[in-house]
Amino acid sequence: FVAPDILSVLPYHLYPANVRPKFLPETWYGYNSVKLLILRAETIRQLRDRQFQALIRWLKQGGYLVVGTGLNYGSLGDKRLQDILPIRVGGHQQLSELKSLGQFCGREMTGIEPFLVLNVRIDDSKILLKENDIPIITQKNFGFGQIVFLSFDFNTPPFSHWDGRRMFWNKILSLQPKIDRPKIDVADQQIV
Q1: How far apart are CA 33 and CA 156, in angstroms?
Q2: 117 near 92, Cβ under 8 Å?
Q3: pLDDT tens-digit series, residues 95-119
């Protein structure tokens, strides 16, 4: 489930789906075929209780969620988001490039105009990428699953116009948790 402008740059082997928040599943198994769920922080705040509980259970069982936000970081203080991603915002920083993305996915990002990134810290997390000591991509384990937080708005320039988006999302997808769960070996005809 992704935003419409991301659909064209996801890895080729994925079937992207754009779902309005009000139609997200209310059961954890509604996410069974989801490899990667990309949501803005505001969307998490808008979920109904059953939807939020389904998301939590799916994450704990090995789901993979990417959360992004724009400059309206008021939604980062929402109790629901704080329960799964305890974020402390230390303001924002104006940048004109993210050279560190070159190390992360093979392509630096630059913009003609300056853009803003949030300077955040997340409890019990791992910073995957920094730019000028500002965490750009942060990863937090959640049960068997993972949450990745992006400190920039993936829906606006320069990211939305950047030619490295497909490489970026491929790299993000490669970070997905690998879960080795024992399989039950039972022939189909034995199941009644």
Answers
A1: 28
A2: yes
A3: 989 999 999 999 999 878 888 899 9
